[in-house]
Design goal:
Largest sheet of chain A: 3 strands, antiparallel
Distance between the termini of chain A: 47 Å
CATH class of the largest domain in chain A: Mainly Alpha
Oligomer: homodimer
CATH topology of the largest domain in chain A: Four Helix Bundle (Hemerythrin (Met), subunit A)
Largest interface: A-B, 35 and 35 residues
Shape of chain A: elongated
Number of strands of chain A: 3
CATH superfamily of the largest domain in chain A: GntR ligand-binding domain-like
Number of helices of chain A: 9
Helix content of chain A: over 70%
Strand order of the largest sheet of chain A: 1-3-2
CATH architecture of the largest domain in chain A: Up-down Bundle
Number of domains of chain A: 2
Radius of gyration of chain A: 19 Å
Structural class of chain A: mainly alpha
Chain lengths: ~210, ~210
DNA sequence: TGATAGAATTTCGTATACTATTATCGCTCC
DNA sequence: GGAGCGATAATAGTATACGAAATTCTATCA
């Protein structure tokens, strides 16, 4: 059973991930406690966990704020994902089962359907799910955890710099390339495709950043 | 200033990392609170953070225990470190400054001195420091965080399967290879050396595992 | 003798209340 | 008029207390 702290954590986490709580915004624990209808204790626990996740920053007795998004740090996150996703894809080739393959295909289909409708709002969530399943298929819990951690940071960033429809199309295409390698049971191709996929996304970001001058 | 929860967290964390609290061992929050001379609240916060770190597991109203070490999972951790450390070394080549290089040399010297004395107890700590400085030199916070996370898991594992003196010697030698690449400002060589370093450590572990047959 | 049901104990989860630290606002002095 | 200092308010940190859930022990029955 989930505790109130768990519920508060998930609620706050998704609020931050979806941008309802913006970077720099101040958090008032007492106020949150009131709005959740609980005491400060479970709220505090949720806040502390989010702080450990790097989503909130707090100074003792001096307030809690939503962590800022350091655009420079994003490059590091993409670099890390590049090598981790390559590793995951290579391992997934050897372990992925039919159920997981079916789920991956299902997600791809959903993404294509949404693109048809021009609805890019849910794309980020589906993209996360795709990579989560892939990480699951790789067969090591640590890889799933790392993926989750890195994806969360990127999703937050995407709020401030959303991907356009054209870029989402290339995401879906690149996923297809990864899946083709999975079907061929070709670990090197899968790793290369995954690495290229993240690299391509990073390139889009860097492109955007270039306008800011660094 | 550090809160009591912070202090409890650090204390417990190091107790787990150093094996004073063994996997499967039961944690009594009330007892801990007494021994720390504080109430349950800060202890609870520390416990929850450690749970998020994967060092403790708890079931509601059913006690908290030190997380077990899944030897199979360790392979995943080494695989992840292999690619992350390669990334870090490659980046560090481009950014490492003189102070950091001096610190790395100092750590290497300390490790050599300890080996002379046949004292391998402190080696794990120095090894962690080496990789921490390297991650710092890479210039992205996320890489430092990931390193910290992965190192902690490995250190716990090392409690149950300590490295022998011969293996520690090869660790120091491999660190030297990485540092030579740093001095030559050769990113590819640094990445390759780092990757080989982690791979070599993983090989030792796997070797040991092989006796267990699985 | 072994299994099962229920009670007692253990231990976590949360609310309320209080303390300590920090931030902010206003006043005074330069 | 601006800067520095002090009082007040705001807010996180912690303690105490209570309630709920699960485990464990014991007693009884098959």
């Amino acid at each position: 059973m989930k505790s109130k702290a768990d519920l508060a954590y998930e609620s706050l986490r998704s609020a931050i991930a979806q941008g309802n709580l913006r970077p720099g915004e101040r958090i008032n624990m007492e106020e949150l406690a009131r709005s959740f209808g609980v005491s400060k204790i479970p709220i505090r626990e949720a806040v502390k966990r989010l702080e450990a996740d790097g989503l909130l920053v707090s100074r003792v007795h001096a307030g809690v704020t939503v962590a800022g998004i350091d655009v420079r740090e994003m490059r590091g996150v993409f670099l890390a994902r590049e090598v981790i996703e390559a590793l995951i894809a290579g391992l997934a080739v050897q372990r992925v089962d039919d159920r997981q393959l079916a789920e991956l295909h299902g997600i791809q289909q959903e993404m294509r359907d949404l693109l048809e409708q021009g609805d890019t709002a849910e794309m980020a969530e589906l993209n996360s799910r795709f990579h989560r399943v892939l990480a699951e298929a790789a067969g090591y819990r640590i890889l799933r955890d790392l993926t989750e951690q890195l994806l969360l940071t990127i999703r937050r960033y995407r709020i401030t710099a959303p991907l356009g429809e054209r870029n989402w199309r290339s995401v879906v295409d690149e996923h297809d390339t990864i899946m083709a390698a999975l079907h061929r049971r070709d670990p090197r191709a899968a790793a290369a495709a995954a690495r290229a996929h993240i690299g391509s996304q990073a390139a889009h970001e860097v492109e955007d950043e270039a306008e800011d001058g660094g």
